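Recall the central idea of this unit: under ordinary conditions, the amino acid sequence of a chain determines the structure it adopts. In this exercise we apply that idea directly, starting from the sequence alone.
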Amino acid sequence: MGVKTNPLENNFVGPFSDLIMRFIELKISQGYKYACQGHILSKFSHLSFNHQIENCILSKELVQDWRDKNSQVKSNTLAQALFPVRDFALYLIDLGYEAHVPIIPRIPISSFVPHIFTQDELSRFFQCSDNIQQRNHYNSTMPIVFPVLFRMLFGCGLRISEALNLKIGEVDLEEGILTILKAKGNKDRFVPMSESLTKICQAYVELIHAELNANDFFFCMRNRKRLCETTIFERYKKVLQTCGIKHQGKGYGPRVHDFRHTYAVLSMRESHRKGVDIYYFMPILSNYMGHENVYDTEKYIRLPTEFHSEVRNAVSKETEYIIPEVSI
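Accordingly, the structure predicted from this sequence is:
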């Protein structure tokens, strides 16, 4: 049973089926996609058949059985399986039903450190991107698409899915503004591009989209179909290898997503150099990147070594009066 784009298309059974569907309808009305969660609750509803359920009571035994069936996975995967059940239990309690609320295991803080590309690495990467040779498929659009796609990822701090989901009608080439629809958290936002990136996109459209169709994918194959992340990732690894940047393996990076991290760090550094107050800048950056709050954006800020001294000096200059020097 695959994950349905529309969570209500899942097969819900058992005594909780109607209540689960009402719960999911509520979450969708609140702006959540709830696709994976709907898939999880569908499997949870099938498990309820093995229990004696009276008066739609969500028992501790049923919740424990669900936990046990997911106990062989990592703690973060177990948490993902329990979160929708916990939210459903709280929903039942609000309706006046009895329900046991599962305790979510603590998710260990990731020690993963994203790769922040240096100016030299970026220069080499884009130089190699601009010289991709046609391989295997004569009708591949990759030599044209790849360098523009990654300039957009770096120049706008987009998620790869956001860029690949863009339609022509969502790219305003006159004003240089992208319209990102139904991104993470089901959020929409406008993303301004730089003048140089806008000109690159204008030239790209003339090469790829001879006939403009607003519903065509902006980054597409010759048959107008959407490019997939796997295809991009495989070519990305080859470009890294060509330009001398070692890839440590899947999950270790440099990842495609690290271009988004690099954008956040360099944006913050550039704003600091221009004298912009970082505390005023963070909410703006958070909104631009499509984050729920500034705390999500803070996770993206990994200060390169050469930036440490700049921040330390700036902070010292602003706070030196707080703790004055003491002569001994």
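The radius of gyration is 24 Å.
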